[in-house]
Structures are given as C-alpha cells and as structure tokens.
Amino acid sequence: MATHKKEAFTQKEQDLAAFAKALAHPARIAILKVLAQRNECICGEIVEILPLAQSTVSQHLKELKNAGLINGSVDGPRSCYCINWKAFEKFNQEFSWLFTNLKIKNEKSCC
Amino acid sequence: MATHKKEAFTQKEQDLAAFAKALAHPARIAILKVLAQRNECICGEIVEILPLAQSTVSQHLKELKNAGLINGSVDGPRSCYCINWKAFEKFNQEFSWLFTNLKIKNEKSCC
DNA sequence: ATCTTATATCGCAAATATACGATAAGAAAA
DNA sequence: TTTTCTTATCGTATATTTGCGATATAAGAT
C-alpha cells in the first residue's frame, strides 16, 4: 500500500542512506573509479569504457551529481565530471558516526 | 528493454555495489545503529524502535543478513542479530581500493 | 546556414524495492 | 494439547530503478 517512509527517520540516517544508494550500482562504482584514476575531468570517455548506452551512462552521471558525489561543468560541446572529494569525506564521517558507540569496545560478534 | 547488466562489471564493482545497496535505506541504517549500540544480539526490540511493521523489519533484516552485514541465529522463539564487523572491514578495504590511484595525489576537484 | 559531435532528456518497458496485512512455523507456557 | 508469543514468509499494491532508442539541445566545424 504505502512505499517509502523515509521521513520517519533521522536526517543523518537519510543522508547516509542516500549516499549509499548513489554507490549502489556497479556502473556508478565503475564511473567513480574512472574519475578517481584520471582526476581530470572526463566526459564521454566513460561511455566508451562502460558497457552501457550513452543515455544510460548520462543518467548514472546525473544521479551521482544529484547525490553530490561528483561535480560537473559544461566545457564547450562536452561535459566534464570529477569527484567531489569533500562529499566522500563527509560520508566517511557519517559512516563512522554509525558505529560511534562500539566498534572499538567490542569487535567480536555475539552470534 | 533490458534491466540490470550487473554481470558486465567486475566482481569487485559488484561486491561494493551490493554492500552499498544494503546500506541504501534509512531503516537499515537505523537497524545497524541499534545493533552497533548494543552489540549484544537483539531481535524484535528493533521492531518496537522502528516506525515500520514487523514484517517489513523482518524483510530488512533478511536483506542485511543476505548481504553479510549482520549475523543471525535463532534463540528459542526469538531471533538474535548482530553486526558482522569483518564484513564492514572488508567494505572499508574495497572502498579505499576504489580510489587507490588518487585521493592522496590530488585532493582537489577540477570542476 | 548547415552539418557534425557530444550530452541531456523524454517516453517507455521490464525488473526491483518497499510496505503492509495475513498467515505459517516454531518454541515456550498454560 | 492448546494457547501464546515471536519471527519468517507469502501475496499484493505501489513506487522506484534500470536500460534503451529516439529526440532535443548546444557548441563547434564546414
């Protein structure tokens, strides 16, 4: 009946989930890897590397950009993308926040 | 026409994406947070904490377990869950692998 | 002005994910 | 045994994601 009760959770929980969601597809991981390797802004080279149609890649780029994981700017007839490192730093912080109360205290699983 | 072309990507990319996918919902983040705070195996207390139906929580727990993020064992009439820390360690490794070639070299974004 | 090239967006089809109530399954309690 | 309690699973409705071709858009080249 209903779907998505996101509003019932804290902002931090939503933020972290949104970040993870952006990473939750191998194509987007692959895109980030390419961008990380080159650092320099890249565009449709990604289309040639990935086994996906141009429109699909464009869509994944859009999602990554909406999530704030990458920056994009128009460079003449082509688009230029690169990783937003600050966003990843923030993610790491949020991620470690998840486990603040423990992780060091007890590394052992109980079951 | 087609959906999900996962098999076209590397195993590492798929693994990382699968892990992220498990985290890609605020309810599952919330569950992990509860488990991290208590460490001790917990079960239906989670149901009381989360603003979701029991069946929905059970479904999320199943996903987390399938992804390997948590362990679960039956304890009499109730189920006991706890975080699989090793899985998170592995994830951290995979995650940093993503950016091996850079991150240190150049923290600045180009666009 | 027209053509080419590079990207983004639209529209659609198929697959997944999310959520819930109802029901099953299993153990303990009566 | 029957009841109760806890959790998992099934069935179902709806929303979202994924993917592609076709088309729009925008800048440079001819």
Keywords:
homodimer, 5 helices, 111 residues, DNA-binding, Arc Repressor Mutant, subunit A, two-stranded antiparallel ribbon, mainly alpha
What can you tell me about this protein's structure?
2 copies of one chain form a homodimer. Chain A is mainly alpha-helical. Chain A has 5 helices and 2 strands. Chain A has a two-stranded antiparallel sheet. In chain A, a hairpin with a 2-residue loop joins strand 1 and strand 2 (78-83). The termini of chain A are far apart. At the A-B interface, helix 1, helix 2, strand 1, strand 2 and helix 5 of A face helix 1, helix 2, strand 1, strand 2 and helix 5 of B. Chain B binds a DNA duplex (30 and 30 nucleotides) through residues 1-5, 25, 27, 43-44, 47, 52-63, 74, 76-79.
> What kind of sheet is the major sheet of chain A?
2 strands, antiparallel
Assembly annotation: homodimer
Strand/helix succession of chain A: HHHHEEH
Uncertain spans of chain A: none
**End-to-end C-alpha gap of chain A:** 35 Å
Helix content of chain A: 40-55%
The count of DSSP E runs of length 2 or more, i.e. the number of strands of chain A, is: 2
- CATH topology descriptor of the domain at 22-96 in chain A: Arc Repressor Mutant, subunit A
Quickly name the level 1 CATH class of the domain at 22-96 in chain A: Mainly Alpha
CATH superfamily of the domain at 22-96 in chain A, by name, is Winged helix-like DNA-binding domain superfamily/Winged helix DNA-binding domain
Strand order of the largest sheet of chain A: 1-2
What would the principal axes of the Cα set say about the shape of chain A?
A: elongated
Give the helix/strand class of chain A. Answer: mainly alpha
CATH architectural grouping of the domain at 22-96 in chain A: Orthogonal Bundle
The residue-averaged pLDDT of chain A reads 87
Kindly report the greatest chain-chain contact and the residue count on each side. A-B, 55 and 54 residues
